[in-house]
Amino acid sequence: MASPPAPAGDEPRAAGTKYVLITGGVVSGLGKGVTASSVGVVLKACGLRVTCIKIDPYLNTDAGTMSPFEHGEVFVLDDGGEVDLDLGNYERFIDVTLTRDNNITTGKIYQSVIEKERKGDYLGKTVQVVPHVTDEIKQWIQSVSSVPVDGQTRPADVCVIELGGTVGDIESMPFIEALRQLSFSLGKENFCLIHVSLVPVLGVVGEQKTKPTQHSVRELRALGLTPDLLACRSAQPLIGSVKEKLSQFCHVPVENILNIHDVPNIWHVPLILRNQKAHEAIIKQLNLSGFARPPELRDWTEMAESYDNLKNSVKIALVGKYTNLTDSYLSVVKALLHASVACSLKPSIQWIAASDLEDATAINAPEAHTKAWETLKGSACILIPGGFGDRGISGMILAAKYARENKVPYLGICLGMQISVIEMSRHVLGLEDADSEEFNKDAPNRVVMYMPEVSKTHMGNTMRLGCRRTFFRKSDCLTSKLYGSPPHVDERHRHRYEVNPSFVPVLENAGLHFVGCDESGKRMEIVELQDHPFYVGVQFHPEFKSRPRRPSPPFSGLIMAATKHLGTNSNNSNGYVGASE
Question: What global pTM score does this model have?
Fold first, then answer.
């Protein structure tokens, strides 16, 4: 099918979308997601339009029902898609708005194939992994890559595909085969493969070892895919002889062997790729020289270097349920980073397990209890993020109470907003049995209730999800000012419970003002505490839309309030670190 004519004023583009595939070998957790995002940044800086796809070989339909301890946070998209956290990296780095279809899982593929089989679409044929499953994968990739994600109307020039897991994993074999077929049908000038591998240094020998990468590439080639570039992860820069050895045994030109060594912050990774001319190799492989320009990364360079030069930091107490795995709150961490850097500070996140603040811990583990409270009181501000279940709730309520009574800047996100409502109800209104229906369905005073339209029998994709509009009830409220005083804001949601509207009047009389609501006027979205420097709760998740150069307003407000709190605090050691940690 011929490409549609270019709109007036558009520069001529390459015919059809071209593909860059990122695979990984040796071990998981090498940073394929950051590599894929960084490739996208560099190609976009060359004037090319970029989209991204993440392939997750697990059987789950999406990430919505997966434990944060097992797979990190669930990232939520505008369309309500609950997806892998790597799509958050793509959105933050490349500044695009992806859809649920940009995350392909084995569950989605098999579900689609089985639905077609039940409808008779295969005309009585025996449905097999090859060709039916592999054809479905190829069709999905080509269909999704044609959907613009940057606000324009034409398909992207380049689609960066990240294959999750490690080459050789049994669950990824159908995807490897489908990608092999896709690369063959598209031709070399439309398909570029970057293999991310590890070059470790053994402690005893002290030598950079290439054998793991050699074996990984050998396995990849045995499956029918040959890498065009190698992206070698290492602690220190690779020495020249190592690159030559890798080139000889992996059949990759020396100039196409990239080294992504450890850096002070991940914003340096696109600069590393640029400095090693990764864009030139990719553009040459994809025959895009006539459409690309030299990469323009001045703003990105300034951002990366300015962070390295920051001397002061601010202590932020993050009181959560999943603090043993920081990836559980990855978008929150990134939003704090964006807001802190905008205030010329580095974020020093103090991880506090909410259960450690509880009275029961004072008896069972007194040292952990004492340390948790010392950390909380030594921070410049407090943040309670989202979560599910009743574990640690009492500790969160105590943290919110401490912030309210001691005028410490506080931001509650989703569950954190509900915690502030429960805390006020118990300790200001005197409703000692006030609770959420999530934690106690028989509580006499259910100040947080189950949303009536949400399923109580199915967990997956049944919450209030995606981008929803919040209207400001008071135009002069603090949160509205942080957003620039618009009549409404559009933010992403992920929750099953909401504030019980019957308790709103009495809570407002006590000083907890509900300044934002949905279009019905009944579902409360934003709370602010009067006579407090910064005590804000939001039902939505503002972290999902935070960007390096456009920090989320509620996070910016928290950090700005924290700096003011430090300025009025006679003890500067409380929450302030003179030299970056």
Answer: 0.92
